[in-house]
Design a protein that fits this description.
With 369 residues, the protein is α/β, with parallel strands linked by helices. The protein has two domains: 189 residues, Glycogen Phosphorylase B (Rossmann fold); 156 residues, Glycogen Phosphorylase B (Rossmann fold, 3-Layer(aba) Sandwich). Helix content is 37%, strand content 17%. The chain has a seven-stranded parallel β-sheet, sandwiched between helices. It has a six-stranded parallel β-sheet with strand order 10-9-8-11-12-13, with helices on both faces. The longest helix has 18 residues.
Length: 369
């Protein structure tokens, strides 16, 4: 099958959707499909996540990928996408996230190429983005199908969009961990409370830092490690310094070796306001880490099973409720051990082979129609 996959950027570090994108296209290439990649990156850009060398990557080099596009840049991108489609002649095309699938859908008008829009966020993301929300409603007229990562996510969208949606979960790592996380950490000089995710407002790392500040004095052997890049880095760094937590809270940036982060942690926390599906949470549980998240957070409350693999926090004061839960788990080695399954969590729907089967089937049906 001859496929084209488009995404805003493959050079920017640490995005969950970008990691999923790389896993899917690499998996399809390994299965013998001809895959072309299109991004808006500069011509000399290098991919943050490894890409199979057999995938043909075209970098359009239009606009900056680290900020919203201007109207002029968007129009130029649509034109360049149309030229790229004519040059590569794919049988089917996939756009990852609205920054790619809306321009891609407009670029394919009249070409007869079936488009699949891959959405990786929930409607709450568009609450303060009226233009993006309006464009999203056009998607059923531009794309043959829209993929979302769970039934829970799909039910949150309007009926007009749900009728075009199909659920395909995110794939977990292609290779599972050889060793599980050491949730007790008895032999470690320092214990690690780990969070992984973009440094963005949606992830609410400020609440996590405030909660850690409330318990840090009673837990001198614990550090908080927030792995990821994003536009909130400087704000969070200043917040950490203002609380006097330099040396206890670190922002090491994004990493390609996330497995090592899970392996050295004793507890995982995802303080997000909303998620489509917390990919880092899926991976943390697969590594045997107990996890903490908020009960009202979509994409988290579906994965954390209280009393079995973690704790869901609730309460009107997010900071104090989170601090109370963290304090209880960080001071009690046995409590963490009880929440860590005896074997690494099964992947289930996130098994890479099952996810690739779903993508192959969807692409094949798109060709037949």
């Amino acid at each position: 099958m001859k496929c084209l996959f488009a995404i805003k950027s493959l050079e920017l570090s640490g995005g969950g959707a970008e990691r999923v994108f790389a896993r899917i296209v690499n998996g399809l290439v390994v299965r013998g499909h001809r895959v072309t990649l299109i991004s808006y990156d500069r011509p000399a850009a290098k991919a943050f996540y490894p890409l199979d060398s057999r995938a043909d990557w075209t970098r359009l080099g239009i606009g900056r990928v680290d900020r919203p596009a201007t109207l002029r840049e968007t129009i130029m991108r649509i034109g360049s996408l149309r030229h790229a489609l004519a040059a590569h002649e794919p049988e089917v095309a996939v756009g990852f996230m609205h920054s790619a699938f809306i321009p891609l859908g407009l670029a394919t008008v009249g070409t007869g190429i079936p488009i699949i829009a891959s959405e990786h966020i929930i409607p709450a993301h568009y609450a303060r983005r009226p233009l993006e929300r309006a464009l999203l409603r056009l998607t059923p007229w531009l794309a043959w199908r829209i993929t979302v990562v769970s039934e829970q996510v799909m039910t949150q969208y309007p009926a007009a969009l749900r009728s075009s949606m199909v659920v395909i979960p995110n794939p977990a790592p292609m290779t599972m961990p050889v060793t599980r996380a050491d949730t007790v950490g008895a032999s470690r000089p320092r214990k690690v409370l780990l969070a992984i995710g973009r440094l963005a407002e949606q992830k609410d790392h400020a609440t996590l830092i405030d909660a850690f500040a409330l318990v840090a004095g009673r837990l001198p052997d614990w550090d908080l490690r927030i792995v990821g890049d994003g536009d909130r880095h400087d704000v969070l760094r200043a917040h950490i310094a203002a609380l006097g937590l330099d040396g206890r809270v670190s922002l090491p940036g994004a990493t390609k070796d996330v497995g090592s982060e899970y392996a050295m942690a004793q507890l995982f926390v995802m303080p997000s306001l909303y998620e489509s599906e917390g990919l880092a949470l899926v991976e943390a549980l697969a590594h045997g880490l107990p996890a903490v998240g908020f009960a009202n957070c979509p994409g988290v409350n579906r994965l954390i099973r209280p009393g079995r693999n973690g704790v869901l926090v609730s309460g009107s004061n997010r900071v104090h409720a989170l601090a109370e839960t963290l304090d209880r788990l960080m001071t009690d080695d046995q409590a963490r051990l009880n929440l860590a399954p005896s074997e690494a969590a099964p992947l289930g729907a996130n098994d890479p082979a099952r996810v690739l089967d779903s993508w192959e089937n969807l692409l094949s049906v798109a060709l037949q129609t």
